[in-house]
Design brief:
The structure is a single chain. The protein is of the alpha+beta class. The chain has a domain of 99 residues: Sandwich (Immunoglobulin-like), CATH 2.60.40. Helix content is 17%, strand content 36%. It is built from 4 helices and 9 strands. The longest helix has 15 residues. The radius of gyration is 37 Å and the shape is elongated.
């Protein structure tokens, strides 16, 4: 009687995981930019679909892979409820992936020089941000106590908005000693 009552408690369980291996082994594996371990490495399947893995090992080209982890037939509705809750044994869903890493290629100096020359030639026809014959004059900072003009908008009927420069009375550069000079 008690066994019949406890039977539903011990039913159904699906373990989902994947294993990544590489040739040679010992490559650091990243899933979506986060390290999960060195090959061979196991991890849990969070969802079925596409995963992005990167395998990194010194002396080898970094390998970027988009790997699809397909859902098994018993994980589709309504079979998933039966597999996870009513089947009286554990179901192990394990996916194994193996990747071959390529030895790192040393760049050829002639290829690098040719690419640099091509880039230099492509840039010859471009217009610089400012013409080299036009001198760039720095903006001078006015000395304390000098009068600086202010721009105030005015409107004329024929030309529209125009601006005129009005002088501003200088402010005392040392406000603690003498305060602010009053405006006329």
């Amino acid at each position: 009687m008690i066994g019949a009552l406890l039977a539903p408690i011990n039913t159904g369980c699906v373990t989902r995981k994947y294993t990544i291996d590489s040739q040679p082994q010992g490559a650091l594996v990243y899933r979506d930019g986060k390290p999960i371990g060195t090959t061979p490495v196991d991890d849990s399947v969070v969802f079925y679909g596409n995963y992005r893995f990167s395998l990194v090992k010194d002396g080898y080209e970094t390998l970027h892979v988009e790997q699809k982890i397909p859902a098994p037939w018993y994980e589709y509705i309504p079979l998933d409820f039966i597999a996870e809750n009513l089947v009286p044994w554990e179901i192990n869903d394990v996916h194994r992936f193996s990747y071959t890493l390529q030895p790192q290629q040393m760049p050829n100096n002639n290829d690098i020089l040719q690419k640099a020359s091509d880039l230099r030639n492509r840039g010859k026809g471009l217009v610089p941000l400012h013409a080299p014959e036009t001198p760039i004059t720095p903006i001078a900072t006015p000395a304390p106590g000098t009068t600086i003009g202010a721009i105030t908008p005015t409107t004329t009927p024929s030309t529209g908005p125009a601006r005129s420069i009005q002088p501003i009375t200088p402010v005392n550069p040392n406000p603690i000693a003498g305060g602010v000079t009053p405006r006329p």
